[in-house]
């Protein structure tokens, strides 16, 4: 009988020793909270970078579509309404960019939506991007020749309507075909 009492005392001591106290639990939760708060800005920045990368991919696809359009039309870029006009300009009769290039992107409307567009521009106008109206009807391979430096890498073809990306930048696809943040 004496041994039975001793064993019970040891098991009680071990079970109370293995449990967390309320203070230990609160300290653990506080440490986890601090670590989570330190990670949130990094995760937010990574999400913005991912949105910017998806936007550049969309612009690259639209740039290819514009090139295909030009190839089918004797090298000429389309006549497109500027970004302030949502669907069709009644006075000029110019269609919006999404109407002209929709067939060249396989009818995929999502390519016209920038993931950084949180202001509803896509929902309102059908495209988060703006067309460089100064290039309407111009011959694609001649653009940039009229620049003093002869450089078409600085002339945007299509870009974001607003600076939705890190460091308040707009992404763009340029006449030479590359897509990157617009400087």
Task: Characterise the protein shown here.
- This protein has a four-stranded antiparallel sheet.
- Strand 3 and strand 4 form a beta hairpin.
- The chain is built from four helices and four strands, in the order ααααββββ.
- With 183 residues, it is of the alpha+beta class.
- The chain has helices at 2-18, 22-72, 97-101, 121-125, and strands at 129-131, 156-160, 170-174, 179-182.
- The chain has one domain.
- The protein is elongated, with a radius of gyration of 29 Å.
Number of strands: 4
C-alpha geometry: elongated
SS strand fraction: 5-15%
Uncertain residue segments:
85-91
What is the oligomer described by this structure? single chain
Strand sequence of the main sheet, in spatial order? Answer: 1-2-3-4
> What proportion of the residues is helical, as a percent range?
40-55%
Distance between the termini: 87 Å
What Rg, in angstroms, do the CA atoms define? 29 Å
Can you describe this structure in just a few lines?
This protein has helices at 2-18, 22-72, 97-101, 121-125; strands at 129-131, 156-160, 170-174, 179-182. By secondary structure, the protein is an alpha+beta fold.
């Amino acid at each position: 009988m004496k041994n039975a009492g001793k064993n019970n005392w040891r098991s009680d001591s071990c079970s109370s020793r293995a449990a967390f106290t309320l203070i230990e639990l609160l300290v653990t939760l506080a440490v986890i909270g601090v670590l989570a708060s330190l990670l949130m800005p990094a995760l937010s920045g990574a999400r913005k970078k991912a949105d910017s990368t998806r936007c550049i991919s969309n612009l690259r696809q639209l740039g290819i579509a514009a090139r295909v359009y030009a190839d089918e039309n004797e090298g000429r870029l389309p006549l497109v309404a500027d970004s302030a006009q949502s669907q069709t300009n009644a006075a000029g009769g110019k269609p919006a960019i999404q109407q002209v290039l929709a067939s060249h992107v396989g009818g995929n409307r999502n390519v016209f939506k920038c993931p950084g567009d949180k202001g509803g521009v896509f929902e309102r106008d059908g495209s988060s991007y703006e067309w460089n109206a100064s290039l309407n009807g111009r011959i694609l391979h001649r653009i940039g020749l009229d620049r003093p430096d002869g450089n078409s890498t600085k002339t945007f073809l299509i870009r974001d309507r607003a600076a939705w990306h890190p460091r308040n930048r707009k992404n763009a696809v340029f006449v030479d075909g590359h897509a990157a943040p617009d400087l």
